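Dear H.,

Thanks for agreeing to be a second pair of eyes. The structure we're designing against is below in token form, covering all 494 positions.
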């Protein structure tokens, strides 16, 4: 790659890093309590929250893992995009108004707080916090891994070509920790706004660039890939029909269990904003997903055409390789900045909910007195979680997309039944909630750790979530319903 291109790209990333530091310092001045640090004081506007919802869903998983998955499996990955778009509609329908009403009623500072209020059980809130911590460590590792891999590939083309990958992990974690510790969730949501605007504009420009890169545009890409592997361009791709249909359970229903997404529904200024947020969030996600799809198809086509020279050593390189060698350097710089924005804001959300679980929710679940100087401990917990996730990201052999699906699955298995269903069904009780969380996570851990492959590539996380939902409904129907507090009962009727 020409040196001037790498210089322009790195310049955009450096400017963005400086912006992150500035946003963190600005947000720190607005963060005076744990309520501000974890919930942004519930003063967010409709547009800011809408963009934060869809950009948190995209994250480094969509920017890096998405194109890599298209490059690897063809059209199978399209079903993730379709199902997540459907899932956002389901999420707003089930939780958009409900969570905001709970936030108005009990003023929770975290999702487990709201769960504890709904089931009148600190233990149920504590189980939710444990599940959140497990998912955070895995999913946060995705963000750090994506950020480090992209930074490493960029530095190879400039003066710091000898920079080892380990230092890229250190740099990524250091910037991330500073940004998160200073700004909390306030920094995250306003970076989400920047990221969302960049993603929507850049995705359209990237689509046009990919069409110009391969003769015949999208049709030409499809023809090249079909000649190599006809199954890759069939409706179900290389994963097969059953595997793609299983994405519905883990992606569409699973959106309702992603704490870094649904907690933002509790942060809006007005309850009535939900009806306007849905179309903006879905439209933004749909446009941003053009980047996911177009880059993956384009890179597979140019590799098969021998235009790119050598095949990719790792599918996760698809996005960075395309932007480095085929996009205009200014567009590449903007998209890379958007990528880092996606990673930083989503990682901040994960660190935020993880630290809340560690210093606020778990002590409550065990009947401990609230920590003194909780805000200070939240910042210390943020550093500890970031280091743990960074180590996992470095030593994990999984590609970004697979790690992302693992973290997504943990959240969906534990949270969808007790929140998406339980907050809309009075019959749900704490016994059903506790049993479903424990059994679902145990099922998924058993399948994953023993590497049991289900028939027809049915996804392990989707199967585990079906088990969780079945147990949740069965136990709720055969055990006595809990008596709800009057205010909770009234909110459930709305």
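And this is the sequence the design step returned. I haven't edited it by hand at all.
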């Amino acid at each position: 790659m020409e040196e001037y291109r790498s210089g322009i790209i790195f310049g955009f990333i450096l400017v963005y890093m400086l912006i992150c530091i500035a946003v963190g310092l600005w947000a720190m001045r607005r963060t005076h309590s744990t309520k501000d640090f974890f919930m942004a004081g519930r003063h967010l506007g409709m547009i800011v929250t809408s963009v934060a919802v869809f950009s948190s869903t995209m994250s480094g998983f969509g920017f890096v893992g998405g194109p890599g998955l298209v490059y690897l499996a063809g059209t199978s990955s399209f079903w993730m995009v379709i199902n997540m778009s459907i899932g956002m509609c389901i999420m707003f329908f089930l939780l958009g108004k409900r969570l905001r009403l709970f936030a108005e009623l009990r003023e929770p500072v975290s999702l487990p707080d709201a769960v504890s209020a709904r089931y009148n059980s600190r233990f149920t809130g504590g189980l939710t916090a444990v599940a959140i911590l497990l998912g955070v460590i895995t999913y946060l590792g995705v963000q750090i891994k994506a950020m480090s891999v992209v930074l490493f590939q960029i530095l190879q083309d400039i003066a710091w070509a000898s920079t080892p990958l380990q230092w890229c992990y250190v740099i990524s974690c250091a910037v991330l920790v500073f940004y998160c510790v200073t700004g909390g969730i306030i920094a995250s949501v306003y970076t989400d706004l920047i990221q969302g605007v960049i993603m929507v504009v850049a995705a359209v420009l990237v689509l046009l660039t990919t069409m110009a890169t391969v003769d015949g545009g999208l049709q030409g890409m499809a023809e090249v890939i079909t000649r190599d592997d006809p199954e890759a361009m069939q409706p179900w791709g290389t994963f097969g029909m059953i595997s793609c249909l299983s994405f519905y359970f883990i992606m569409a229903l699973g959106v309702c269990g992603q704490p870094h997404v649904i907690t933002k529904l509790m942060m809006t200024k007005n309850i009535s904003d939900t009806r306007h947020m849905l179309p903006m969030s879905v439209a933004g996600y749909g446009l941003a997903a053009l980047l996911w799809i177009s880059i993956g198809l384009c890179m597979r086509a140019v590799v098969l055409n021998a235009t790119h020279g050598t095949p990719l050593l790792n599918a996760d390189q698809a996005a960075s390789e395309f932007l480095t060698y085929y996009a205009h350097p200014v567009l590449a710089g903007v998209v890379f900045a958007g990528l880092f924005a996606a990673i930083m804001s989503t990682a901040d959300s994960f660190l935020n909910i993880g630290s809340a679980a560690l210093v606020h929710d778990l002590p409550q679940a065990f009947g401990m007195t609230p920590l003194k100087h909780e805000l200070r401990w939240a910042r210390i917990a943020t550093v500890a979680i970031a280091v743990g996730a960074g180590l996992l990201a470095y030593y994990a052999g999984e590609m970004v997309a697979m790690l992302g699906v693992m973290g997504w699955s943990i959240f969906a298995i534990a949270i969808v039944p007790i929140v998406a269903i339980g907050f809309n069904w009075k019959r749900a009780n704490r016994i059903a909630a506790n049993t479903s969380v424990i059994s679902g996570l145990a099922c998924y851990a058993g399948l994953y750790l023993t590497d049991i492959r289900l028939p027809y590539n049915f996804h392990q996380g989707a199967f585990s979530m079906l088990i969780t939902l079945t147990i949740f409904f069965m136990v709720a129907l055969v055990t006595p319903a809990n008596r709800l507090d009057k205010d909770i009962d009234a909110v459930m009727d709305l």
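Two observations from my side: Residues 111 and 259 are 7 Å apart (CA to CA). The chain has a mean pLDDT of 82.

Warmly,
E.
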